[in-house]
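Q: I have 490 residues here and want to know how they pack in 3D. Can you give me a structure?
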Amino acid sequence: MAQVTIVGLGPGSWAGLPLGSWNLLDEQTQQNGAILLRTERHPVVDDLRNKGIVFTALDSYYDAGDSFEEVYNRIAEHVIATAKEKGHLVYAVPGHPGVAETTVQLLRKKGPEAGVAIKIGPGHSFLDDLFAAVGVDPNDGTLLLDGTSLLPRQINPSLHTVIAQVYSRDVASDVKLTLMGQYPDDYQVTVARAIGIEGMERIETMPLFEIDRLDWIDHLTSVYVPATLEERVINRQLWQFRDIIAALRDPDTGCPWDLKQTHQSLRKYLLEEAYEAADAIDREDSFDLADELGDVLLQIVLHAQIGSEEGTFDLYDVIQSVTDKMIRRHPHVFAAAQADTAEDVVANWQEIKQQEKADAGVEELSLLDSIPVSLPAVTAAYRLQKKAADVGFDWDDMQDVYAKIKEEINELEETDDKEDEFGDLLFAMINLSRFWKIDPEEALSRTNRKFRRRFAYVEKRLREMGKTPEQSTLQEMDKLWDEIRHQEKS
């Protein structure tokens, strides 16, 4: 069976080359065996060449590939093919074979599938020297990440973080932008190049926003981000917010008000916060919207904490539930379904919802059972009518709607049950909004804001005249109302 023996060349200096790696390379050369190097861009390679080690470097693959993923896959395939041809080869990589070496992981997967045994030999990781240089014990909690594929979800500021493979200023720029989503721009980080290599080593600590300005970044560069519990950093993390809410609910040290709350007692606050967020949207106030959405999130996490204490559900159940739902209801994005228009998406959504209810054994006695009874009356009326219209229970012509409105007005004038007929009139008006494709809730909210704005103008003008609304006549106020109305229209 063919075999690949993988050895590490250490961080870069001759002194850092493991004796075991040297012995294998020297023995392979003496036997005229094949030696492949992932790259010859490593300081110890010149020493190997001078000492008579014969090898083939695979740097040409970096020029031919469009992405690192493609490059590493091609290198792994070449190593396997050569091993099958030669029977055995030594494959040498910088550092340690098990640290930040994608090709090694690919070989460990692809090799056995191709009938090639993969043996991991000695190595010496740059991490040993880096942690010694920055004075950190990795046992305190460490992340090792790849700068060429860094994702925000990988970052945890409470852990020491080493970002390897920062090959260039372009990679450093990508790393910087990703980290700045979690850390302040001026957060102090350490950039290290050629760590442990005498004469080449360079270590500098600087603000995060400056790391891509360094002109000495190369293939031996890494970035160290120290762990922190600073509030300005960890208060951006969802886990920190969850811990805060858990602390508020601690039976011994928590807040008396928070400890008294139940799902039912918090219900009104959830609705209030949702309406306040909607108001910020209507006012197009982005900063206030961020604050109000935080209040909505507070309600969600607080309910999840109560659920966790009761043993019914926790925050992760909430997240998983909605994540699964979004994937399930968007097969045109996450699966093979087709949806070319917004209407197609809605149709798919409704069909999937019905299937979900059928799978869960939910039986709706009425088509309208899916409309929550707790919705605001205007929104509920709109959705009830729309649901009925979807199955053909609707007016054919808008003139019929106008006729119905006139009928309801006449009945309102003639009846003693004003409340009932007034409700019918509102219901008919909402029907008209559907035909005009107007959201009645948004339309009424817009009118409410307009009324607030115009009445505030009337009050302001009256104050300028030394009067209050109570001291003014309807005619005076109506004149000012017309004044602001004309100003707005002009």
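Q: Anything worth noting?
A: Residues 189 and 313 are 39 Å apart (CA to CA). The mean pLDDT is 92.
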